[in-house]
Design goal:
The structure holds 2 protein chains of 2 kinds. Chain A has one domain (10-312): Rossmann fold, CATH 3.40.50.970. Chain A contains 11 helices and 8 strands. Chain A has helices spanning 10-39, 54-61, 77-82, 87-95, 128-141, 160-171, 200-205, 219-237, 263-270, 274-284, 290-313; strands at residues 69-73, 118-122, 148-153, 176-182, 185-186, 189-190, 211-215, 240-245. In chain A, the strands form 2 sheets. Chain A has a 6-stranded parallel β-sheet, sandwiched between helices. Chain A has a two-stranded antiparallel ribbon with strand order 5-6. Chain A is globular. The relative contact order of chain A is 0.17. By secondary structure, chain B is α/β, with parallel strands linked by helices. Chain B contains 12 helices and 14 strands. Chain B has helices at residues 6-20, 44-48, 60-72, 91-98, 101-104, 134-138, 151-161, 212-225, 243-253, 268-280, 302-308, 312-323; strands at residues 2-5, 24-28, 53-55, 76-83, 114-119, 144-146, 168-173, 180-183, 196-199, 204-208, 230-234, 237-239, 256-263, 289-293. In chain B, the strands form 3 sheets. Chain B has a 7-stranded mixed β-sheet with strand order 3-2-4-5-7-6-12, with helices on both faces. A 5-stranded mixed β-sheet of chain B has the order 9-11-10-13-14, sandwiched between helices. In chain B, helix 2 links the parallel strand 2 (24-28) and strand 3 (53-55). At the A-B interface, strand 2, helix 5 and helix 6 of A face helix 3, helix 4 and helix 5 of B.
Chain lengths: 329, 324
Amino acid sequence: MTTRPAPKRESSRKRHSLDLLRQMLLIRRFEERCSDLYQMGKIRGFLHLYIGEEAVAVGAMQAFTPEDAIVSTYREHGHALARGMPATELMAELYGKVTGCSKGHGGSMHFFDAEKRFYGGYAIVGGGLPVAVGLALADKMMGRARVTACFFGDGAVAEGEFHESLNLAKLWDLPVLFLCENNLYAMGTALAISHSVTDIAFKAKGYNVPSQAVDGMDVLAVEAATREAADRVRKGGGPELLELRTYRFRGHSMADPELYRTKEEVERWMEHDPLPAFIKHLRDLNLLSDADLAKLEASVKQEIDEAVAFAEESPWEPLEDLAKDVMTT
Amino acid sequence: MTTMTYREAIRSALRDAMKREPRVFLMGEDVGRYGGAFAVSHGLLEEFGPERIRDTPLMESTFLGAGIGAALNGMRPIVEIMTINFSMLAMDQVLNNAAALRYMSGGQLNVPLVVRMATGGGRQMAAQHSHSLEGWYAHIPGISVLAPATVADARGMLLAALEEPDPVFIMEHATLYPIEGEVEGTSGACDIRKAAVRRQGSHVSLITYSACVWKALEAAKRLAEKGIEAEVVDLRVLRPLDRETFLASVAKTRGAVIIEEAWRTGGLAAEISAQIMENVFDLLDWPVQRVCGTEVPAPYAKHMEDASLPQVEDIVDIVEANLL
């Protein structure tokens, strides 16, 4: 099975562009609402917002079929929404409700959806990579033409499991696409002060894994690069790595006082905000009118309002189920 | 009945499982061309080929994690880790992924993964190859931990583990690989829920597992010469513990000695002792006793290693001190 190619015809091109824009808007507005709800005490625990990185999740996710597997990180709201997980279930999960995508067991860092083959948010940095390699191993052993998409951040590149996983995936020629979201900071530690070599795409060459750096603030560039790489991986070409260069506009989590970077640096990056950039691009091509944008904003707001209402109204997991899902039997 | 070694019993289970179920495969360090560090998988590469007998690079964390991923995606992987000390490198995948995924996903996922590893001392392997860390594993909700002491269990437990929907860790004591025992060559999965009473007795319960079962049986023989009938309980399953069996034994004998190679502080023996206190305290004639490993990283010199591990005399002495 191959993915749909990026549309060529004008009308379908417009539809596809608006779809990408709507997904990016949904993530942005969802995250803004999460921030408010966190301050209201509705969401607790750690909350790692994806604001600024939307082009990565939305662009990359276009390349994967429903049969492909997704492995994500603790900053996975964007991946989950772009994968099509319902905002209602995600918001309920953030509330800790039993109707959440993980029954309220995981919270912000651990979204799962077996049907959507969304294999979870992994909060031990680097811990998802070996799992992704194993998912791809099973596909290869069973002769299925599927891809495992493995998202991780630049912080994971310092972990041994990054190097082990690239080595093993290439050694066994497994259909896994490594997607490194390089937002330049591992929590508060800059790439430049934690890596002897800061070019992540270059590191993959050491394992003979084809790799490429992509502008992660450009949704179309991300989509194109990911489609091409995913197609090669699906056809048996072995693993590849994309380094998606991006930036998060908010702190690492809600608890971050942001002592490690300057306001000026954040402002400089915000000039490359992927949302206004894509909106401008679509307007320049006459693919987006003011009315289109207003309609999108309204429909996104309604979807999030419904998600919040669903989360508010949902029940809590009964106490007697406390240890129910630990073992199957 | 056939006589075979513990090592051969595991190999026969591996072979039968792989013949029966195409989704079963083995991966680990030196399991293929080398034949397994303890020769357990000797000959299997020739029989099943490199797709199903997979030599991995030295990356315990990643090949165990890959086992998790393969299990999530329809395969039935068996991961071999050379020794329990090496498994520390994979502990993140064990604790944070294998054991947690079912719960964390709200019951959507399960990880039918089997992990085998060699454990235990007594071979002068010093402080990085000799430990008994089963208790660390037994601490973790979400997994099962098995400790086969007999040849029959070595075979039956592996076959049973492959029928479980959740992760199972099998701790194989390295000194047991050459022991011989009787086993039904075509036997299938055995029970992996219950402890076993290996010797009936009425005066004291010797509660133990793995290689120490044989030391306890030898101690029981010597105690019998002095008129003391010791009951030997082989725990077999370290998680979840079969409380019922060892509590019933203690309720009968009114005395308990718990024996394990692991260090005393915070060990499994302490947990069993606590369960005895919580449940049958009033029935005890004397305080629960423990024979555990000395709290030293593990010596190389033979006389020192022997002194650091539970020995038959230690068990005999502690029973006599309390009963005679």
